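Um, can you check?
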Amino acid sequence: MENRKSKRSVRLALVLGAAVAGTALVGFGGLAAWQAYTQNSGNAFAVGSLTHTNIVSGTGVTCNSSSSLPMTTPCSVVVSGAILTSGWSGATGTVTIKNTGALTSSFEISSPPSDPPTGALCANLDLTVTGADSVQYVTQTGIGSISPAIALNTSAGSSSWATSASNAFAFSVTPGAGFSTNNSIPGETCSFDVLFTQLSA
């Protein structure tokens, strides 16, 4: 009698265990179908742009800055003269630099490292570069390399140019002390390039 009860108890325990296990499996499967999410997308970073324009008065040409040298398309000539004679009094031209980037910037003027002034006539020509702020940034007796680079202020006199800030720089090349005698030498020339460099402030 006790043996039968014992067997029944074992069977009952097995049946109850199987039922509980089945319920657990069904319950687990049902819970697995429930899911919830949140997603924070598009986290990104970018560096502000550093660009400027170079416009020579009277040309109607806007020259955009480049991130590397040499520029594939150099900007317009600022000042020039051909077939100079002893009565020649000089030449002038104006270039306007404008900060078109997204960053406050500073600017410098210099001679391109790979393109120094060339020609014997350069020694007999004088160069001045004056900003719209009336500051005379370059004064050379005899055109030579502008080196080291010279910092350029905005029209307001600050070394940092805000976005959209600009300044016009007037170039003047005039005959130097030896020009009246040396200009008669056939084939004598002077050629020079000017580099405007923009730097993040």
About this structure: The chain has one domain: 52-200. The chain has a mean pLDDT of 87. Residues 129 and 171 are 5 Å apart (CA to CA). The chain is about 15% helix and 25% strand.
